[in-house]
Amino acid sequence: MGEMWRLEGLTKSFGPIKAVEDFTCSLEEGRIYGLVGGNGAGKSTLVRLVTGVLKPDRGRILKEGKELVIRSPKDARRYGIAAAYQEFSLVPDLPVINNLLLNIEPTKLGFIDIDRMIYKVAEFMDKLGVNIPLDKLVRELSPSEKQVVEIAKSLILEPQLLFLDEPTNYLSEEQREELFKTMIEIKNNARTTIVFISHRIEEVFRVSDQAIVLRNGRLVDIYDLGKVSMDEVVKAMVGELAEEFRGYKYVPKAAVEAVSGKPVISVRNLSVNDKVKDVSLDVGRGEIVGLAGLLGQGQSEFLRAIYGLLPYEGAISLEGRDVKINSPRDALKHGIVYVSGDTLEGVFLLRSIRENISLILNLWRGLHKPVLSKLEKEHAVKMIKKLNIACRDPDQPVLYLSGGNRQKVYLARGLTVNPKVLLLDDPLKGVDIRAKKEILNIVKELAGDKAVLFFSSDIKELLPIVDRVLVFFEGRIIREFKGEELREDLIMEASIKGTAG
Questions:
Q1: CA 426 to chain centroid
Q2: Which of 14, 35, 101, 487 has its CB surrounded by the most CB atoms within 10 Å?
Q3: Which of 372, 265, 243, 381 shows the shortest CA–CA distance to 319?
C-alpha cells in the first residue's frame, strides 16, 4: 500500500493562537488512523481544514501526488473527501432525506442513483438498530438519531477519505460495535482511508491501524497500534508538564483550611438526561473546585442544571437547606450565578456596559418599574473599577470591547447580586493570555466568601487557583485530585483514559 493522501505543512491560526502548526502526514488507502490529542490539540480544526470548512494559512493537500485546490466542502467532496462532524452539520428544519441528499451532485452524465444510495443508508441504519422515518424533521430527532444521520450523510457519498469526528458520542455500545464493523468493511472493500477521532482511547485501539498524536496543534508522532501500549500513546498525548507550571506547588489557602460546618452547596445524585449521571459533590465557603475532563463529558450540562437551564433529577442543597431550581430566576434567588464562556449567549452586544452589568438588578426590581439610570451607573462604575474593565465609559456598547473585557462584563453582572455560589463554564474560552490572568486573579480574590465551581477545557488554567479538581468522563466524576496530585499530566491522563487511576 502506497501513499494516497498527503497533508503537507498545514497551519491555521486564530489571532495569536496557533490551532494547527506545520502539520505534515501521509495517509495510505485502506487504513484507519486514530487522530488523538487532548482539548485544544487541533483535531477538529485539522478536519475542517482538509474538508474545506476552514482555509489554511499555509500548507497543501495532495492526492496521489497531485495538489488539490480545496476552497469549500463542495470542492472537498469532488475529490472524494467527506466528514461526519462532532458538531452536526445537519439542517434542523429539513427532513432526514433532504439532509442526506443535500450534498449529492449529478455525475457528468447527469445521473444520480438515488434508490441505491437510500438503500445503503437504510441498510446502515438497520445495522445500528435505528428506524428513522426519512420524512421526519431533523429537529425532532434524538441526539443518537442525529448522530446516525450525520454519519450516514458522510457515508452516502462513498468517500475515499472519510473523517469521523467523535462519531460514537451518542451511540450505545451495540451501535458502536456496528459502526466499527462498517468502518472495517469499507476500509477493506472500498479501500477507504478513515481518520477516526474519539475521546475513548480504547476505541482507537479497538478499530485503528495507527494513531496520529497531536499536541498543541503539532504532530507528535504516528504509532503502529500493534506495537505500542495504550500508556505509551497517552504519554505522547500528555507530553511533559507545561513549562510555566513545572515548578507549581500546591499551597492550601488559609480560608479553605479554616472552613468548618456545612458546605455552601451540596449536590446529590444529579443526572441530566444521558449527559450527567449520578454526580454528587460538596463545595465549602472559600473553596474553588475545578471541573476537568475532555470536552463534552457533561461538565457544562452539570453547571447549567444547577443554574436551572436544564431539567435534572437529584437533590441540591444550599447551606444545609434543600432547594429546587427550575429556572435561572430560582438560582439567582438562592444566590447562584452562572457565567458561560460564550459571551454571545450572555451579553447584549449592542447594549451599553452599564445596561449589561445592571440587567439582573433591574430584573429583581421588576419589569414594570422604571430603570434607575443613576443606580445603574453607580454599579457599573464600581464593577468597571473592581474588574479593571478597559473601556471609554459605562455607556460604551459591549460590541466594541475585546473578548476579555466582554467576559469581565458578563462576570460583573453576576457579582452585582453578591452570590453565594459562582458557576464558571469555561469562562476563558477565546480570551487572550493577559485577560485570562486578570480574570483568574479576580476569581481567586472573589472566592473568599463564595463557593466556586470552575470548568475549564484547559487544565493549565485551573491549576494556579483551584483547591481540588474533579475529572468528568462520560457524565460521571471518575477521579479527584488535590494537594501534590494537582498536576497537569496526571489530570490529563485520567481525562483521556477515563479510569479512576
A1: 9
A2: 35
A3: 265
pTM of the predicted model as reported, rounded to 2 decimal places: 0.70
Residues 92 and 231 in one domain: yes
The 3-state DSSP class for residue 30 equals coil
Domain boundary among 365, 384, 418: 418
Q: What is the pLDDT along the chain (501 residues), one digit of tens a residue?
A: 568 999 999 999 987 778 899 999 999 999 999 999 887 788 989 999 999 999 999 999 999 999 999 999 999 999 999 999 988 889 999 999 888 888 775 555 556 667 777 777 777 777 777 788 888 999 998 888 888 899 988 988 889 999 999 998 888 778 888 899 999 999 999 899 999 999 888 899 999 999 999 998 999 999 999 999 998 998 898 875 444 444 444 444 444 443 445 799 999 999 998 889 999 999 999 999 999 998 889 999 999 999 999 999 999 999 999 999 999 989 989 999 998 887 767 788 889 999 888 887 766 655 555 556 777 888 889 889 888 888 888 999 988 887 778 888 888 888 887 889 999 998 887 666 677 788 888 888 888 889 999 999 888 888 889 999 999 999 999 999 999 899 988 998 899 888 765
Q: Answer with the one of 178, 213, 239 that is the final residue of a domain.
A: 239
According to DSSP, residue 68 is labeled P
Q: Name the helix (H) or strand (E) containing 14.
A: strand 3-14
Distance CA 307, CA 300 (A): 11
Structural domain harbouring 209 = 3-239
Q: Note whether 353 and 226 are same-domain residues.
A: no
Asked whether residue 253 falls in the same domain as residue 394, the answer is no
* Residue 460: all three cell numbers together: 493549565
For cell 444566590, what's the residue? 335
Decide: 179 and 167 in contact? Cβ < 8 Å. Answer: yes
